[in-house]
Write a structure and sequence with these properties.
With about 450 residues, the chain is mostly beta strands. The strands form 8 sheets. Strands 5, 6, 7, 8 and 9 form a 5-stranded antiparallel β-sheet that branches. Strands 22, 23, 24, 25 and 26 form a 5-stranded antiparallel β-sheet that branches. It is elongated, with a radius of gyration of 24 Å. About 40% of the residues are buried.
Length: about 450
């Protein structure tokens, strides 16, 4: 009961890189005090009151903007601000009303359009990049998007791979217009089971239709809705004190990792306590999730994680869990197995990493590192070396070498060999907001 509530609160809890969090999700479980809304600003709308957004879209930096009237919110936390402070020219056209719809262009074929943020107001479209209005805008919608109607309700990007080709989905009343960016062909659909969307948002490869203060997740090709919807947006896409959140982003000096790994496709995951964070999603901001959302067997946290040959190995206590490294992660049959059986060692393990293209897993236990050849059977410790650094809790090998984490600092070595044999430790470096979305 408690667990399902926790999962529900946390499922899509997220913060932009402007105000991110390793801590909030943890707080979400505990923070059930219903303190009253104190500051009711008359002029500024409060999204915690439960409002219907006009439009939602991220910019090229992964900051998500939520629009309502002539105000917007920048990110998942913080107060409403005047839209024209961010997008100046939106205010210059007083005969046009508020933003009806917005999306961020995904068009790798045309770098000049890629990542531009488009706004639709009545029959006009505005294109911004780096928060400057592009030359020639605003213009009539149909000049850029032939076949797409004016007075839209919502719009959302849909890159190839998620849609059949790089596309935009436009919503107006009960109609959905699937606009193919390259061919400019429009397919009109009706997804009668989906509520009329007043804004639409793609976030971490998922699609959300917002209606009232609720949202419904849908499949961008079939329109299918799976799961229990609608859900109240205040539990997920914003930080509202009486909706279970309200914690602050942690200080970088308080961040400690249990494990960190990057797979072959560059997806990078950092683990701490019962949550993890994707570190490679700057286009959508950095976000935290309960570990159980992705690796359900590991709700209580992990000790060490490494990636090897399309699989992710998670070590907890004296057990090893191996998952196929594609979402949804599936536990390979027969696992977990004991560390002894899988790697020929006893737990617990503090950190583990494999360098791309290599078969050696480097296992750190206390102040020693053991190398195990994953291509050999049976697996045995081929080499054991004492380390110059104590207290390593997480480690990762990437294109620029090895980073090992001790508390909120890390040490950078060019290779596992240098980690093992350097006589001198390099100066530790501090985890920065850029790396983990914490605050100074
Ligand atoms: C973005 O805009 C800022 C301020 O207007 C400017 O200083 C900067 O050079 C611009 N960056 C790019 C990539 O155009
Ligand atoms: C959806 O939009 C259509 C067209 O504007 C309208 O007739 C219908 O009443 C709307 N449905 C709801 C549930 O608001
Ligand atoms: C929001 O969704 C809840 C169900 O989760 C429903 O009871 C409520 O009527 C919806 N409210 C609006 C404004 O759509």
């Amino acid at each position: 009961m408690l667990l399902s509530q926790t999962l529900c609160l946390c499922l899509a809890l997220a913060f932009t890189s402007a105000a991110p969090t390793l801590h909030d999700v943890m707080m979400a479980d505990h923070d059930h005090d219903h303190h009253e809304d104190q500051a009711h600003h008359k002029a500024n709308p409060d999204r915690c009151d439960g409002i219907e957004f006009d439009a939602i879209a991220p910019d090229e930096k992964g900051h998500t903007f939520f629009f309502k009237g002539d105000h917007l919110w920048n990110g998942f936390t913080g107060p409403a601000q005047v839209s024209s402070a961010f997008f100046k020219e939106l205010d210059d056209h007083h005969h046009l009303g508020h933003v009806d719809a917005a999306f961020r262009m995904h068009n790798k074929e045309k770098p000049g359009d890629h990542d531009h943020i488009y706004f639709f107001l009545e029959d006009k479209v505005f294109s911004y990049y780096n928060h400057s209005l592009e030359k020639g805008y605003p213009k009539n919608i149909q000049l850029d998007f032939p076949g797409v109607p004016s007075h839209l309700d919502a719009a959302v990007e849909c890159p190839k791979g998620e849609c059949n080709s790089d596309s935009v989905l436009f919503f107006k009343g009960e109609e959905v217009y699937n606009y193919d960016i390259a061919t400019q062909l429009v397919k009109k659909r009706q997804w009668a089971h989906l509520p009329n969307c007043t804004s639409a948002y793609r976030w971490l490869e998922q699609y959300y239709c917002f209606h009232g203060h609720n949202f419904t997740r849908f499949h961008p090709v079939s329109g299918e809705v799976n799961g229990v919807y609608p859900k109240d947006a205040r539990h997920y896409f914003m930080s509202c004190p009486n909706f279970g959140h309200g914690g602050k982003a942690p200080k970088c000096s308080e961040v400690t990792l249990d494990a960190i790994t990057s797979d072959d496709s560059g997806k990078t995951y950092a683990f701490t306590g019962q949550i993890y964070m994707r570190l490679d999603t700057h286009r959508d901001g950095k976000h935290t999730f309960p570990i159980a959302r992705t690796w359900k067997e590991l709700a209580n946290g992990v000790d060490a994680v490494f990636s090897y040959s399309d699989k992710i190995y998670i070590i907890k206590g004296d057990q090893v869990y191996i998952y196929k490294s594609a979402a949804p992660f599936t536990l390979i049959e027969g696992y977990p197995k004991s560390l002894k059986e899988e790697l020929g060692i006893e737990g617990p393990v503090n950190a583990a990493f494999v360098c791309a293209g290599h078969h050696i897993v480097h296992i750190i236990q206390g102040q020693k590192m053991q190398d195990i050849d994953l291509s050999a059977t049976p697996r045995v410790v081929a080499r054991e070396v004492p380390l110059p650094i104590a207290g390593i809790e997480a480690g990762m090998c990437g294109p620029d070498g090895v980073k090992v984490y001790v508390g909120s600092e890390y040490y950078h070595y060019e290779s596992p060999r240098l980690l093992a044999f350097s006589k001198m430790s390099p100066e530790p470096k501090k985890i920065t907001p850029d790396m983990m979305g914490c605050v100074e």
